[in-house]
């Protein structure tokens, strides 16, 4: 198939940056061979085939990282002519390795989101060649007869092969689905090796749109084997294409992929973290959108997926030394997970929905199957004190605001009893308990707010905050943090109802923030002072100046900024009626990022 006309439309000169890829030599050879109809050309193809296969492998390794056909054409203007001629040479594609490598090269040139007319035309050409390669093995011995037959039907070769691929995909999908429902009939069931071979054959064609129904069916297929029957190469390729948005798959297929293949789940989670780290956290709405689009909160409705994702987040938090950005991301993920979990359970209860049941894979055999019943919270947090888990997992909007203080006291009392239990001395257990509390950080922000706005038992709520900021009590660190927090809290409460405050009135509190050496004390007092500035009517005038002063002197600017965006998100989703506080938050968030 000739592509010279539109590849040359780009007006690109031959790129000599990669001298090992001798395009001119192999294009001359491909032109000389034609479709290998003579004995001499057939012998010459066989003679040069090993070198050609090595050239195609090098070409694939070179272009697989390029973003699309335009860049590839800029670097290698002869690539279209060469690949087109080779794909129509039956002696070249008669060897599985050559055919597979040609498919890989074509898929690398396919643009998932074409940006111009050249990429649109290239996509159409690539699609027709892939369809030809996909079906050529059936007809390679009778190519001349097939061409006559196609012409008699009134089809072009491209149309014929595209229709043929669709029919083949439809046939395979039907075969797999019928076997799925007839799995107990051993004589009629498809062998695991056949399904595995089918998945391997799909690898170079992952991005071909016509193949999507087969990808979905394979991912949802489970046979009687206790081992994973799909090729790991196939699972990795599907996950890679999905993460790069080269293909679109329904949610059940994606969830099944991650259940079947642990490396794909890990890669998807790390990909999400990379996405979130690459943007500035201007608002949690944007963070929530990215997390939802990843499908991980929805997939985490399965306990096995949730526990693995949570473990990756935990490691990310430790590797970044507990940065506030990572903590905010984890807290937002937890909120979205709870929302998806509640929605999933409602669907199960109302509609009697039976979720997918993937084949056994690396995740524990017993936990892999979805069930129609409601998963209890214990399935997600099996090693934690369950009353504490249930208390933390209650969403604030599920309770009247008048009950928040009492709820926080109950959480604090349970936590304190666990932490101060003399039988619990392991630092690992302490960290796991702290991480559980940290994941539900929305309650911690509400705790600081309730200390100032509501009638609350301060010791219990202050202890909860002190534990969060200073979980270990070595050398009485947490005890000292409590003393500092109580002093700041008492001082702020004296000023809370004042109608008009100046920065000088807050001098003592600011000094406590800027003067303490212990980091956890500084962060807790900063949290209390920031909440005071947001919720005390008399402090609104000096809030901006006071926060700037604190963040200039201390290293808490990121903590303050993350607290503000979390509070803004909570207000936006709770219908907060305090318009003055909302206006102040918006003003602070517009200017503070310049200092973060």
Give the termini separation. 57 Å
Relative helix content: 55-70%
Q: How much strand content do the residues show?
A: under 5%
Which shape, going by the Cα principal axes? elongated
Radius of gyration: 31 Å
Major beta sheet summary? none
What is the number of beta strands? 0
| Mean pLDDT over the full residue set | 80
Number of domains: 3
Number of helices: 31
Task: Indicate the multimeric state.
Answer: single chain
Secondary-structure content class: mainly alpha
Uncertain parts: 1-19, 138-146, 183-188, 353-362, 364-372
Explain what this protein looks like in three dimensions:
There is one protein chain. This protein is mainly alpha-helical and 596 residues long. It folds into 3 domains: 4-137, Alpha Horseshoe (Serine Threonine Protein Phosphatase 5, Tetratricopeptide repeat); 253-382, no CATH class; 389-594, no CATH class. It is built from 31 helices and no strands. The protein has helices spanning 4-7, 23-33, 39-63, 69-75, 79-87, 90-93, 96-109, 117-136, 143-153, 157-181, 192-202, 212-220, 232-243, 251-260, 262-277, 284-293, 296-299, 303-319, 324-351, 365-368, 386-393, 404-419, 427-439, 442-453, 458-469, 477-495, 507-515, 519-535, 540-553, 557-574, 579-591. Helix 21 (386-393) runs antiparallel to helix 22 (404-419). It starts with a helix and ends in a 5-residue tail after the last helix. The model is unreliable at 1-19, 138-146, 183-188, 353-362 and 364-372 (pLDDT under 50).
């Amino acid at each position: 198939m000739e592509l010279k006309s539109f590849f040359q439309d780009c007006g690109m000169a031959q790129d000599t940056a990669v001298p090992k890829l001798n395009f001119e030599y192999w294009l001359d050879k491909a032109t000389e061979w034609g479709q290998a109809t003579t004995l001499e050309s057939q012998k010459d193809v066989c003679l040069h085939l090993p070198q050609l296969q090595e050239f195609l492998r090098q070409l694939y390794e070179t272009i697989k990282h390029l973003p699309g056909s335009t860049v590839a054409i800029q670097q290698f203007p002869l690539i279209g002519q060469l690949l087109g001629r080779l794909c129509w040479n039956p002696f070249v594609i008669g060897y599985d390795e050559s055919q597979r490598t040609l498919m890989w090269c074509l898929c690398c040139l396919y643009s998932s989101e074409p940006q111009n007319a050249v990429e649109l035309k290239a996509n159409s050409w690539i699609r027709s060649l892939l369809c030809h390669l996909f079906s050529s093995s059936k007809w390679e011995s009778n190519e001349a007869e097939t061409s006559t037959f196609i012409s008699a039907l009134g089809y072009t070769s491209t149309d014929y092969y595209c229709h043929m691929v669709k029919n083949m995909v439809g046939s395979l999908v039907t075969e797999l689905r019928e076997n799925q429902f007839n799995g107990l009939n051993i004589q009629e069931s498809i062998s695991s090796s056949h399904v595995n071979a089918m998945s391997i054959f799909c690898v170079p064609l992952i991005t071909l749109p016509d193949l999507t129904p087969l990808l979905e069916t394979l991912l949802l297929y489970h046979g009687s084997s206790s081992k994973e029957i799909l090729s790991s190469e196939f699972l990795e390729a599907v996950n890679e294409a999905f993460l790069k948005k080269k293909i679109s798959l329904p949610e059940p297929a994606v969830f099944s992929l991650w259940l079947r293949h642990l490396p794909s789940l890990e890669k998807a989670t790390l990909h999400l973290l990379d996405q979130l780290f690459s943007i500035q956290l201007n608002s949690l709405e944007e963070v929530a959108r990215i997390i939802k689009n990843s499908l991980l909160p929805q997939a985490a409705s399965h306990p096995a997926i949730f526990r693995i994702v949570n473990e990756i987040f935990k490691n990310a938090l430790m590797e970044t030394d507990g940065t506030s950005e990572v903590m905010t991301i984890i807290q937002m993920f937890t909120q979205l997970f709870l929302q998806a979990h509640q929605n999933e359970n409602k669907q199960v209860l109302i509609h009697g929905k039976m979720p997918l049941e993937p084949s056994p894979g690396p995740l524990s055999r017993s936990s892999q199957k979805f069930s129609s019943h409601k998963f209890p919270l214990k399935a997600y947090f099996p090693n934690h004190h369950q009353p504490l888990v249930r208390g933390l997992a209650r969403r604030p909007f599920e309770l009247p605001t008048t009950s928040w203080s009492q709820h926080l006291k109950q959480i604090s009392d349970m936590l304190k009893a666990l932490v101060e239990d003399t039988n619990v001395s392991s630092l690992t257990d302490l960290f796991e308990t702290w991480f559980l509390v940290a994941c539900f950080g929305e309650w911690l922000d509400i705790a600081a707010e309730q200390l100032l706005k509501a009638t609350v038992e301060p010791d219990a709520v202050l202890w909860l905050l002190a534990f969060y900021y200073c979980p270990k009590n070595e050398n009485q660190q947490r005890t000292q943090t409590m003393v500092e927090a109580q002093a700041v809290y008492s001082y702020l409460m004296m000023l809370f109802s004042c109608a008009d405050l100046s920065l000088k009135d807050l001098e003592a509190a600011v000094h406590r923030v800027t003067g303490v050496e212990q980091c956890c004390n500084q962060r807790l007092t900063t949290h209390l002072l920031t909440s005071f500035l947001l919720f005390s009517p008399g402090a609104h005038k000096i809030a901006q100046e006071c926060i700037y002063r604190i963040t200039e002197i201390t290293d808490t600017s990121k903590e303050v900024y993350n607290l503000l965006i979390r509070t803004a998100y909570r207000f936006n989703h709770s219908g907060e009626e305090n318009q003055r506080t909302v206006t102040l938050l918006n003003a602070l968030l517009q200017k503070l990022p310049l200092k973060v």
